[in-house]
Structures are given as structure tokens and as C-alpha cells.
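B., you asked whether I could sanity-check this one before it goes into the benchmark set. Here's the sequence:
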Amino acid sequence: MYPASPGGSPMPRPELPYRLVDADNHYYEPDDCCTRHLEANYRERAIHIETLPDGAREWRFGDKPLSFHRGARDFTISPGALRAYYEGKEFDGESAPVISTDRPAYRDRKARLATMDKQSIEASIMYPSFGVAIESDMRGDPEAAVANVRAFNRFIEEDWGFAYENRIFAPPLLSLVDLDGACQEADRVLAAGARVVAMSPGILTGRSPADPYYDPFWARLNEAQVPVVLHIGVSSYMQDWGTLWGEPAGVTETEMSAFQYLTCFGERPMVDMMAALVLHNLFGRHPNLQVVSIENGSKWVPALLANMDRAAAASISTKGEASGRWLGGPLKEMPSEIFCKHVYVSPFWEDHVHGLVDVIGSQRVLFGSDWPHPEGTAQPLDFLSEVEGLPDEQVRHIMRSNTADLLGLER
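And here's what the prediction gave me:
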């Protein structure tokens, strides 16, 4: 376990001899992000906005309110507004809201490019704000889930582009809720030029994502050598795990208890997902795959690597042979070695970036500002305060080269 982040306010921003490549940017979606391209026969099972009698607006799947991201993102707060809270200082909960439709850079790619120019960002991976949390609410209706994801991806392609001007890389979402649907959508978005794809960490179907059953899907990404981003999202843990401990299912982001936050959201599903990908030998069967953890933090990394190595050692007989059950086949390397060859991690700004570099190396660490979300940095360059003191070469790895390599850009 490496030390906690020293915290502190952002340092004065120095001039860099290169522009940044940001692994974690976001846009805010319009109301029709799932309905605009949805086939007519799925209209009754669409993800859509419903206006309530009191005027409140909420997202629904068919006639059911969504759980986590239920409320429409009409209002938000400024980028970096939660920094004081995360540093243990008093937070002004009454700070003026931001109307997301009043900020063109939040919703329009040309305006966003102009903002990126001012921020010294050459390119960024651009994720949804609402769309990262829709999959689990649809798992009971795989056919409709596939249709809604497909429609959402067409919105992404139309409004943001999979590789717009070689600067905005908006990854399409892929879901394993239905294998045939996942393969068909992977074929479609890869043919359309997707440079990176996104999935939610966790499990939805009762199978490990690394189960050989899903090999036809992973084989497509392995052949294309397109990286897979696991962005923080909502898995089935709220329904399947939290309820075993007496917690309610279907809570919104503002209703989540401390226990649910710890055990059902963020770090826990991500740790389990990474353990499954490594210990179920996904990378042994698909050696070109590269997986990226975004907005899941990094404090879990040292313990996971040590625990996976210990677990693997316990599954080796006294004769040095693999014993027990190895879904996907026994490993040929230690899990920690596999992780460091196939996984990139983008730490929270409040994590100890130096410590993560010591564990997995600077060539596996990605800068992600989370802009314009309030839990991220106020300005992307503020992240430089977290890499202060690292050698210039390592700073460039983190702030530019590693993500550039994943996207096929100049380092």
C-alpha cells in the first residue's frame, strides 16, 4: 500500500514542450441520445426522458425509472468544484449550478475543440456522462439492451465521432449482456473506425467476462488491436450483492449508502473485473488486448497485484503443476506480470501518482482530468501538480505518450 496523496492546491502551471493527451474527458448527452436512432419496434422499451407532474425530468427504461442516473443532467456544478471536499475541507453545497445546455463545449464537438485548444489538449478520449450507467438497468431485457446501446453508439458517432479530426475519440459502448449482439456491434463500430471501445466493469450475466464463451467477442478486439476502456459505471452489485447485506436495490447516486459506495460501486467491481480478466486467462488467449481503467482510482492496484499472485501460488501443486480449476486455462506468468503488460490505470488526482508509478511503471499510468465533471480537475493542466517531482520523461509518458500510443497518435 503506498502512502496517501499529499493533497494541496494546484501548482502554478508550467509551460510544457508538448500538448496533452487526456484519457478522461466527458460530454453531456441530449434527451434523444437513445431514441434518435432506435428502431421503431423498440420504442416502448427505449431509454428516454420522462417529465413528471411536478416538472422534474428523469430517465426511464420503458416505464421504469433508471436507478443510478435517474435525474436528467440539466444542471451540474463547475469542473473541479468538489476538490475542496475531497481534500477534507468545507464544501459549499449551495454553489451556483451550471446549466449544461448553456455550455457549448459540454455538448458540441466544435466548441469542445476550441476549448481543448485553450487547455493545451491535443486529443482526448471523450466519454458519456449518463451513458456509462445505463447497462445494468437493462440486463433483464437483453434484446432491448442491445438495441438501446446500438442506438446510443449511433448518437456518439453522429454528434462526437469515433475519431473526430483525430482529436476527439468518443468510444462506442459494448455490452456482453448478449454475445451475438456484442459481436455484431463490435464488427459495426470497428468498421466505422472506432479506435477505442468502452465497457462497464462488473458482471451482468452470471458468467465471467473472461469466460471462453465470450471469446468470439474478444477475438475481434484482439485482432483489431483496439484498446478496451473500463470506465467507472454501475454493475449488478447494487442488486445482487448489496441486497444480500440488507441494502436496497435501485438507489440513485444521491441515495447510495456508505456501505454501497464501498462494496457495490467503483473500486470493488473494478478489482473483481481485473481479477477475472487476469485469473481467467483472457490475456493468455488474446495476447494483443490492452485494457484501460478510467475513473476507478488506483489505490487498489498494489493490493490486487499482491493478492492475485498469492492466489495463483495457492493454486499450484507441490510439483509446480497447475491445480484446481482455471477458467480459460492456467496462467503462464504471474498475475502481476500479466497485469503490467496488459493494463493501463488512470489514477484519481487525489491518489498518490508517484506510488502508482513505483508499482506498475510510468508507461502504464494515464493522465485523466475528468473534465468537465465536478469531481475532476478545474483545468486539465492542474493534474501536473500530482506528477511534480517525477523525471520529465515519466511526466511525458503520463501526460501524453501512453494515451497517444493507445490512440495511434504521435508520442
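One thing to flag: The CA atoms of residues 359 and 399 lie 18 Å apart. Otherwise nothing jumped out at me.
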